[in-house]
Model the fold of this input.
Amino acid sequence: MGRTRQRRPGHRYHLSIALVVALAALVLLAAAGPAVAGPPGPTLDLAALQAKLASGPLDGFMITTMQGSTPEQIPVTVLAVVEAGTWGKLIMFESTDPAITKIGGIAAGMSGSPVYVDAGGTPKLVGAVSYGDDFSLRGTGLATPIEYMARTQDAYSSLKTAPARTTITLDQPVRTATGVVKTLVLAVNEKAARATTASAGQAVMHPLALVEIGGLPATSAAFKKLAAKLEGNGLTVVAAPAGGSAPTLTPDLEPGSPCGVLLSNGFYWLGMLGTVTYLDGDTVMLFGHPLLGDPMGWGLGAGPMQGTLTGATVEEVWPSSWSPYKLMTPADAKGMAIEDRSAGVIAKLGDPAPDYPVTTDVTVDGGGRVVDTTNVTQWFGVDYAPGLVSEFGLEDPGATGYVVSAGIYHALDSDLMSGGGSTTTTVQVSDGTGSYTVSRDNVWDSDGTWYGLGDIAATDTADLVSALVIDPYGIRKVRIDSVDVTASLSSARRYAGLVDVRLRRPLRPGDNDVEVDYYRYGSPDLQTLHATLSIPAGTPLNGNVDVMSAVAAARWGFLSPSQGDSSAAAPPETLAQVAARLGAAPTNGDLIVAYTPGGFAGEIYDMPSATAVSTIPTDWVFDGELSKMTRAIALSARPRTIELGSPVLVSGTLEEATGDVEVSIYCRPAGMPEPTVPTQTVIATEARGSATFFCLLPPVSHNARITAEAPALGSDSLPGAARVSVKVRARVSLAVAHSGGMWTFTATVKPKDTGGSVKFQRWAGGRWVALATVAVDGDGKAHVGVGTKAAPRVRVRFVGNSRNAVSAWAVSR
Done:
């Protein structure tokens, strides 16, 4: 994190200042090859420059802007061409001009300023300012050779990688106005330079890279994350205020003009500012170093990009005995930056970069309302910094998330304010298949310790945008059309803490009422809400009931079916599928009550997700997780299939017991409603930590489901239940009657309300053959006729159904 800059009286920002970057980053060696594009004026390549330096230092000048938008010449002396190993060659120069000595040295924001030498009365371009010195040697700098920039313009290719810090021993000591330089230390950024102790005859240099972040408080989590990321890319970060005025008009760009590349523009904007090196038709070469670079800070550019090229004004130069820098403000649009490469940034004059609006509409404590709009370039928001929110919290809100954070902080006028509120985040996107709108309502709470409301309320934005645009298979070509966030925030907290989960009776198939106790912020009264768990028939009733926020539930897999091998790649999704999934996603205020047979779904990776899940929308953000196991009961019945009129022997075991336990036995014959009172109540006798019970149930007429229920074992468990089914064989008798040459066989089924059908067979040819299958009527009767002279031998059997089991055969005499 950089130093916080103090504003001078009378200093004004023409645009809202959010992130101003006056870059001068690492300079690397280009691949060899003839330059077919480059500056239109005369240049001097390295070989020719070294030949001239053999006779001594060369007089020259650099063109830069010290005030306003008009470039001016500042005398310099080119001292040497130094070998920088993998960095290639750099041009060492110094300036003792009063304009430079007054401010303390070469300033950040001068990066890209063209450097010329006098070659036989003709000024020739040799390079672009890129490094300034630190510590004791003022006015000394390094420049990127112009042939590197020309090759980059021609090839659009990356250059060789450079280390984060390099010490260079010069072939020949170089005498400057303030001393002799024997070695150079090239540090990745100002922070690394400050951590380096310079020895005698040593100059410590770092990129003239200045990042000003405005629209975000310097103490906010969003600012700290962004600052750390940019510092890792070789940039120096300082805080700056926000604003919102219209841009000023500036003259056409020319070598030495101040310029900027904007990636977002509005109340919060992100811009990299520096100096134009040269123009070649409608091509503009900038900075002499990368714009953004890679996360390792090795000076590699981001490659193809899109950012709006602007003019700029220099308000003044902030003097410093350590590191002076220009106070610069971007101005009117001039075109679009298209390549971020190691030796410079390539831009084209013309249309600005395509972008999308991000609007934050924030009301605080029901009173003041602040509406901010910022435009973010498609490249920055979709390709470079879409954002990332992990299942464990905010990681990086990305380009759009930073904009939303800034807008909310603007309204709150606070960074780590505690409180709560609600938001509606709407993202409109499109691709070749059509346009889609995803909207999420959410509630938030912050205690202000780690994240303020501005940080956490931007989480939905980062989550939605990143999920929509991150495409590992490259099948979606997503464009963000707009982002709108409406927030109602307050100092009143939305925190709630989970206390207990209870069941009034053990779980059963069907709907079950679950009570959840909690406390909410600002009230000493215990609150209770009810959830309905709908458990499918046949589900084991021993397992876990878990209560948690939707965020935690998603983390543990309660909200989606098991994917099996979690290491397998997820299948591609269309934009329509992603939009539908995001639209159905739970929110922070959703409380999840889930039942998992056998145990906690998160303990065993191959275990399926919860069998029953209930989602309860609330206005509170719940903390904590509740998990209780139902009391385990082993239950059996003998025999499992009985004859009509026979009793049933039921036995069971409670795995844990501290004494005798009363167990309720319920018997529900098929077709009957769930009983509300026990069929029997028995005592399970405890012995050695478990309790067993036996009971003989009276005969039942139909298939029956027997349930044993036991109370919870203390406050850490839930009442338990177990079920077992028994089948009752129907009883069939067969009667025969003869009339008019027709034999009529009548089957009587008991119980008579069992319904279903019976199967008649006839003995013929030494075996039983099918005769007919006949439905049983309401009196339990079924008839079949056989037209033979002699009485046939017939048998009949009830085929079985859900009410009764298959019967034995009844055979005619």
User: Anything to note?
Assistant: The domain at 731-811 is CATH 2.60.40.730 (Immunoglobulin-like). The radius of gyration is 41 Å. The mean pLDDT is 83. The first strand starts at residue 19 and ends at 22.
